[in-house]
Design goal:
14 helices, alpha/beta, 3 domains, about 10% strand, Rossmann fold, binds guanosine-5'-diphosphate, Single alpha-helices involved in coiled-coils or other helix-helix interfaces, single chain
């Protein structure tokens, strides 16, 4: 692909052209270095028009009902006049080549809607790289007029922290019954949640769901909430029956009203922007480090020596860094 002209792309995207939106996201997701200047020019044009959305992270283990929930929730939002973008962070696609989130046909009704835009996870690269591209895709969607951006992730790994760091509210979907370990939820993820929703509160699972809600309420009472001034609500819903979905959205609106007024959301976004800058610095430095010829020549050999225990890791790091810095003058 040749990089399209950023200004033309930006104005087409702002005018509601969906192909321009898809192309813009492909551009910011591109791992090609020669695409980066165009991607950055595009983002610079779009940035003044971004930021005007509610950014929601939605996480949960495979099978909890994320796609069913997002479909019901997204359609509910559209019914209330919103435009909904769904982005995914799915690091599994790098490790296995397959994707936990992307393999099946997901959110069919939502994806057909003209007020919705669904983008599967970019594949390849580090989690930091995937997170960067998702953040940028979020800005692109906002500039295209989507006022609700849902960032979905599988609740099993580190990507939750990355997602919690790019949204206004991080929502965790849970199954009825069973503690965190039983559900395969990694330690620490519950603590990231601003809102907990027990899904599948229907049929035979209804009483187990009630139980789970009570249990999580109790457990959360002992934790410090991620945002001060907000007690993390625990609710239940049935994504298949559409019950509790409106209440989840009402809670999100309450969160926005309450923490928007106190300045806590603006503060959270400011902190996220600063952290993003630092992770860009980190990624860029690391890239430059790895690409530096002297480092490249020595890296494999030194890694072997460190692995064998012949060279101490800290000494190896210092040596490589010294080579890097010397070569750069
Ligand atoms: P994901 O892997 O988290 O995206 O989960 P899916 O949305 O694909 O749902 C996994 C399974 O759970 C599917 O068979 C869904 O039909 C089912 N499911 C999702 N939501 C509900 C619900 O609210 N109640 C019940 N009983 N089943 C659900």
């Amino acid at each position: 692909m040749t990089a399209p002209d950023p200004s033309t792309l930006a104005s087409r995207l702002r005018a509601g052209d969906r192909r321009a939106l898809a192309r813009a996201i492909t551009l910011v997701e591109s791992a090609r270095h020669d695409h980066r200047p165009a991607a950055e020019a595009l983002l610079a044009e779009l940035l003044p028009h971004a930021g005007n959305s509610v950014r929601l992270g939605i996480s949960g283990v495979p099978g909890v009902g994320k796609s069913t929930f997002i479909e019901a929730f997204g359609l509910h939002l559209i019914g209330r006049g919103h435009r909904v973008a769904v982005l995914a962070v799915d690091p599994s696609s790098q490790r296995t080549g397959g994707s936990i989130l992307g393999d099946k046909t997901r959110m069919e009704n939502l994806s057909r809607h003209e007020a919705a835009f669904i983008r599967p996870s970019p594949s390849g690269g580090t989690l930091g790289g995937v997170a960067r591209r998702t953040r940028e895709a979020m800005l692109v969607c906002e500039a295209a007029g989507f006022d609700a951006v849902l960032v979905e992730t599988v609740g099993v790994g580190q990507s939750e922290t990355a997602v919690a760091d790019m949204v206004d509210l991080f929502m965790l979907l849970l199954l009825p019954g069973g503690g965190d370990e039983l559900q395969g939820i990694k330690k620490g993820i519950v603590e990231l949640a601003d809102l907990i929703v027990v899904n599948k509160a229907d049929g035979a699972l209804e009483s187990a769901a009630r139980h789970a809600v009570a249990e999580y309420r109790h457990a959360l009472a002992l934790l410090r909430p991620p945002v001060s001034g907000w007690r993390v609500p625990v609710m239940s819903c049935s994504a298949t029956e559409g019950r509790g979905i409106a209440e989840v959205w009402e809670t999100v609106e309450r969160y926005r009203a309450q923490l928007g007024a106190s300045g806590a959301i603006a503060e959270r976004r400011a902190g996220q922007a600063r952290a993003w800058m630092w992770s860009e610095i980190q990624e860029t430095l690391l890239e430059a480090f790895r690409a530096q010829p002297a480092v490249r020549a020595d890296l494999a050999g030194i890694e072997v020596q460190v692995g064998d225990g012949r060279l101490a890791p800290a000494a190896a790091a210092r040596r490589l860094l010294a080579e890097f810095l010397a070569a750069r003058g």
